[in-house]
Amino acid sequence: MGLMTGREYRASLDDGRQVWISGERVRGSVAEHPAFASMVDTVAKIYDLHHDPAHRGIMTYELPDGTRGSRFYKVPENSRDLTLRRLMTSTVLQEVCPTMDRFGDETVSPLFVIKDRGDLFDRFDPRYRANGEAWLERLQRENLFMTSGNTDPKGDRSKQPHEQDDPDLYLRVVEETDAGVVIRGAKFETGAPYAHVAFVKPTVGSWMEANRDYAVACIVKLNAPGVRHICRMPLLGLSSTGADVRDHPLSARYDEIDTLIVFDNVLIPWEDVIFSREPELAALMRSEFARWAAQGYLTRSLAKADILVGAALLYAEQVGSANVPAVRSKISQLMVFKQTIEAFLIAAETACQPSRCGFAMPNQAIQNAGRIYCSQSYGDMVQHFREIVGGQPVMLPDHAMLDNPEIGADVRKYFRAGQHDGAERLRVMHLARELTSSAYAGRVQAYQLFAETPIFAQEAALYATYDRAGSLGRARRLAGLDQ
Ligand SMILES: Cc1cc2nc3c(=O)[nH]c(=O)nc-3n(C[C@H](O)[C@H](O)[C@H](O)COP(=O)(O)OP(=O)(O)OC[C@H]3O[C@@H](n4cnc5c(N)ncnc54)[C@H](O)[C@@H]3O)c2cc1C
């Protein structure tokens, strides 16, 4: 099978998966269900981009046998590959949806780590490296949509996984058999109801011997027996299916459903096991996990910052505030955020580092600092934007009011500004509301803050990758300790 098309992707989801939403089991294919149909359409567009002659060069690359593979899954070999990887992600964001987070390019990166550190994996079990590499090749050829399951429910945060009163609060291995490993527990995952496989792996934690049963990583088919998808509430609720996209330009089209996936004694065949009961590999994966993944997060953060700048310019231009010094100052501050993120991305790429096996990694200290910057500053960006657009975006009528023959004229009259009629303004104001004050806005802010692990874990990664000896040495010399 070659790279999937959008149509093939849609058909592939009709596979008997157990998906539950708003208290009911989804019957039939998720592709047809109102809570998922628009996201399935959105992801299908990404599949079709791989076949579009205008984008094929960025989205795909040549495999050794002359066929095309998805660049989502290509291990970067040099700085040019890193640049192409960034351009691939930004192509999806520009062509499909600038605020979309989960589409697979970022979830694969632990497989790059396995390919890079294969010698270490071989010390535990040679199957691990072979399985990881076989999965990477399959993903490259078929472009399966893979989500990421790291985050367990965790229960009592003061206790280790093995100390919890219910041993399933962190996902664990309950049995190893000739056929494979049996896992039980649950993980949070964005996009799982309309993805193919989940890369399940250990969360942030202390990977001590006592947690051995919890130190498991594997690739799980999302329709496997015993896998149950418990979806969060749709942002607009099931009842608002068919919601007017003029009122909800983001949430009516791009609700990336987050899910608690329950793994109820799921048998994972050995060929899908990346490691089982290996605390040392769990610790390695956590510490090296973000080596390539954070580039995708920074690229997404850049696209979101760009939309905030663009929407601020649009809003200010409509209401005639673009030349007000205080408004210009705020817009300039937004531009600083955007340009800073771009600078982090380009610097990390330009000053890239070789990995253990000679693959190209974004400069780790620069990228880790950029990751913290993005996690910390998205809330500030939204706050600047909110100050620019004022309070009216939270006081809006919907487009049904505009369309109403009795009161539509009032809406047009009082929402008009200068040359911009009420209908045009309402569209922009609703975009501003969605970016600042909707359930969609709240979810994006939470995503920006937490999806790359909490900031304390990101700080630990920066501390580990920063050239501390260099700074320390210069300070010692200045203090007169080393002459
Ligand atoms: C929109 C969204 C989408 C997501 N998608 C995915 C996904 O696809 N896959 C996935 O695996 N995860 C996903 N996540 C989960 C994300 O990885 C977690 O939210 C994140 O790791 C934090 O875990 P938690 O929410 O359980 O918070 P907790 O671990 O409960 O932490 C809550 C707070 O307590 C602090 N805290 C906890 N323990 C410590 C400690 N030891 N030291 C210092 N501070 C501590 C944290 O810093 C944090 O501020 C998503 C999250 C969001 C918001």
Descriptive terms for the model:
single chain, 483 residues, alpha+beta, Butyryl-CoA Dehydrogenase, subunit A, domain 2, Butyryl-CoA Dehydrogenase, subunit A, domain 3, 4-stranded mixed sheet, 17 helices, globular, binds flavin-adenine dinucleotide
Q: What's the CATH H-level superfamily name of the largest domain?
A: Butyryl-CoA Dehydrogenase, subunit A, domain 2
CATH fold name of the largest domain: Butyryl-CoA Dehydrogenase, subunit A, domain 2
Strand content: 5-15%
Global mean pLDDT: 95
Largest sheet, strands/sense/barrel: 6 strands, mixed
Overall domain count: 2
Query: Looking across the biggest beta sheet, what order are the strands in?
Result: 2-1-10-11-7-6
Number of strands: 14
**Known CATH architecture of the largest domain:** Beta Barrel
Helix content: 40-55%
Please, could you describe this protein's structure?
It is a single chain. With 483 residues, the chain is an alpha+beta fold. The chain has two domains: 6-50 and 108-287, Butyryl-CoA Dehydrogenase, subunit A, domain 2 (Beta Barrel), CATH 2.40.110.10; 289-478, Butyryl-CoA Dehydrogenase, subunit A, domain 3. 47% of the residues lie in helices and 14% in strands. It is built from 17 helices and 14 strands. The strands form four sheets. Strands 2-1-10-11-7-6 form a six-stranded mixed beta sheet, with no helix packed on it. The protein has a four-stranded mixed beta sheet with strand order 5-8-9-12. Strands 3-4 form a two-stranded antiparallel ribbon. A hairpin with a 5-residue loop joins strand 3 and strand 4. The radius of gyration is 24 Å and the shape is globular. The N and C termini lie far apart (65 Å). The mean pLDDT is 95. Bound molecules: flavin-adenine dinucleotide. Flavin-adenine dinucleotide (FAD) binds at residues 147-151, 154, 157, 187-190, 258, 443, 446-447, 450-451, 453-454, 456.
